[in-house]
Design goal:
The protein is an alpha/beta fold and 410 residues long. The protein is globular, with a radius of gyration of 23 Å. The protein is 37% helix and 27% strand. The model has no long low-confidence stretch (mean pLDDT 93). β1, α1 and β2 form a beta-alpha-beta unit. The chain has 11 helices and 18 strands. The structure holds aspartic acid (ASP) and magnesium ion. Magnesium ion binds next to loops.
Length: 410
């Protein structure tokens, strides 16, 4: 008998009809003789709606109350799903994150899981219950509710899979798997049969929305193969797992993009040790994630220091950097909030400069100006104007299609 952890996302549970359909799918897995733990997200846009409600009653809602509020979304879906299963004649029980033993640190709104005590879940499985766990939430040492950050139910599912030593972790969503490029932009984009953890992590951090990066990281750490598939069809999905067949290395696995990039440049910074840390440390303290960072070679004795942030974080980042201009003796702080990033990802690109050259040529053939370039061993990213991003993704897909096709169908 296999122990399967399944996770259903918000769109799969958007209304009562869909909840009933999900219950039927779960019932089928149960019928084939599996033990089942199911993690749920909140119904549809519930989380966004709760955030909006909070903003209508308070300018800056407290983080503790916010976590309790947001956790209710997943409680609703978990209870409804359990009821729906019971009405189909299956034994089911819903558990909150706390009841499921998910212990976190106290970083409200972005808590990290410290440990999972699976005793209660195992007891319920023993009683032949299908266990429905409210995703995205846990409890801290003070017994206060915490949430794991937006999209955190994926992390709940992988953490439970690790702690329960599950045979399988299946993430059900509204797309049929991981695509080599966003199919809304590249209609014929290949669906990947498999992708390595590192590649998935780079894709997710580069804008591919299908999996939460922290969940992928956790999967890699505990070596849990993760299936991403649609809850609306029976098409086989994408498996995220450790290094895949050697033959398919040295290929571009996919193209990711993120159309929500903003740039901050501090111009004319005196070139002396400690400048980068003086600018970045306060941002880190304020929990602003900084992405691409570039410091120019200095001309005379000043330099320009540039970094990108998610567009939603621009105002906060600027309010932190603005006062530094004077303290550091820089000239000014300039921003651009109309940028995007496009990346090619593939483990095999290591030590192969040809891929970068081909990427730059493709963009230049489209007349697209590259503003910043950053790379990892398995990723090349260009920051470009947002208005060019769709053209860039399509052109890059076309350029690398042969490579992608090899990787997609080994
Ligand atoms: N409901 C939460 C969100 O929308 C968590 C999740 O969906 O994974 O971010
Ligand atoms: Mg959601």
């Amino acid at each position: 008998m296999a122990l399967v952890v399944q996770k259903y996302g918000g769109s799969s549970l958007a209304n009562s009809e869909r909840i009933r359909l999900v219950a039927q799918r779960i019932a089928k897995t149960k019928d084939s003789g599996n033990q089942l733990v199911v993690v749920v997200s909140a119904m549809g846009d519930t989380t966004d709606e709760l955030i909006k409600l909070a903003s209508q009653v308070a300018k800056q809602p407290g983080e503790r109350e916010m976590d309790v509020l947001l956790s209710t979304g997943e409680l609703i879906s978990s209870t409804l799903l359990a009821m729906s299963l019971e009405s189909l004649g299956y034994k089911a029980i819903s558990l909150s994150g706390a009841q499921a033993g998910i212990k976190t640190d106290s970083t409200h709104n972005k808590a990290r899981i410290i440990s999972v005590s699976v005793k209660r879940i195992l007891e319920e499985i023993e009683k032949n219950n299908i266990v429905i766990v409210a995703g995205f939430q846990g409890i801290n040492q003070q017994l206060d509710t915490t949430t794991l950050g937006r999209g955190g139910s994926d992390t709940t599912a992988v953490a439970l899979s690790a702690s329960l030593k599950a045979d399988m972790c299946q993430i059900f969503t509204d797309v049929e798997g991981v695509y080599a490029a966003d199919p809304r932009i590249v209609p014929g984009a290949a669906k990947l049969d498999e992708i390595g953890y590192d590649e998935m992590l780079e894709m997710a951090n580069s804008g591919a929305k299908v999996m939460h990066p922290r969940a992928v990281e956790l999967g890699e750490m505990y070596n849990i193969p993760i299936l991403v598939a649609s809850s609306f069809s029976n098409v086989s999905g994408t498996i995220i797992r450790e290094e895949i067949a050697m033959e398919v290395r040295n290929k571009v696995r996919g193209i990711a993009h993120d159309a929500n990039v903003a740039r901050i440049t501090v111009l004319g910074v005196p070139n002396r040790p400690g400048i980068a840390s003086a600018i970045l440390a306060p941002l880190a303290e304020a929990n602003v994630s900084v992405d691409t960072i570039v410091q120019n070679i200095s001309v005379g004795n000043t330099t320009d220091f540039t970094f990108t942030v998610d567009r939603s974080a621009l105002a906060k980042a600027k309010s932190i950097v603005d006062p530094l201009v004077e303290t550091l003796g820089a000239r000014e702080c300039a921003t651009d909030s109309t940028l995007a990033k496009v990346s090619i990802v593939g483990t095999g690109m290591q030590n192969s400069p040809g891929y970068a050259a081909m990427m730059f040529r493709t963009l230049s053939e489209q007349g697209i100006n590259i503003q910043l370039i950053s790379t990892s061993e398995i990723r090349i990213t260009c920051i470009i104007a947002e208005r060019d991003v769709n053209i860039a993704v399509r052109a890059l897909y076309e350029s690398f299609e042969a490579e992608i096709a090899k990787a997609a169908r080994p």
